[in-house]
Design a protein that fits this description.
alpha+beta, six-stranded antiparallel β-sheet, Thiol Ester Dehydrase, Chain A, 41% strand, 2 helices
Length: 140
């Protein structure tokens, strides 16, 4: 299990944009499983939406991307680099994510050629799918 400080040694994101709280497991270059503990004090809930807080889908997607970045940037030759979006494909949002939810984030790298790759991404809450899709990344 990696905590936030250990995660920061792998990926460059920092608060308030570090979107994962802990990494349960990862295999460099292959996969990662992380968690985001969604609480009512998150900065984005002030405007999305007052009185009905829902985690924006783009931030669920970013949480998944950061999880995938743990897998990609933990490979020795990628240490100190960054993984950026090259595309978001087939992303579907199935369940609203609200304060109190523990978002499980799973990314499996299914294809990679040079600095470009694709990750199969799945976000769940209590075993129910919140979002799923494919993330294309570039290591820079």
């Amino acid at each position: 299990m990696l905590n936030k400080e250990e995660i920061k040694k792998i990926i460059p994101q920092r608060e308030p944009f570090l979107m994962i709280d802990e990494v349960e497991s990862y295999i460099p270059g292959e996969s990662a499983v992380a968690y985001k503990n969604v609480n009512s004090e998150e900065w984005y809930f002030k405007g999305h939406f007052p009185g009905n807080p829902i985690m924006p889908g783009v931030l669920i997607t970013e949480s998944l991307a950061q999880t995938g970045a743990v897998a990609i940037l933990s490979v020795e030759e990628n240490k100190g680099k960054n993984a950026v979006f090259g595309g978001i494909n087939k992303m579907k949002f199935k369940k609203m994510v609200i304060p109190g939810d523990r978002l499980k984030l799973e990314v499996k790298i299914i294809k990679q050629k040079g600095p470009i790759g694709i990750g199969e991404a799945l976000a769940t809450v209590n075993g129910k799918v919140a979002a799923k899709g494919e993330l294309t990344f570039a290591v820079v």
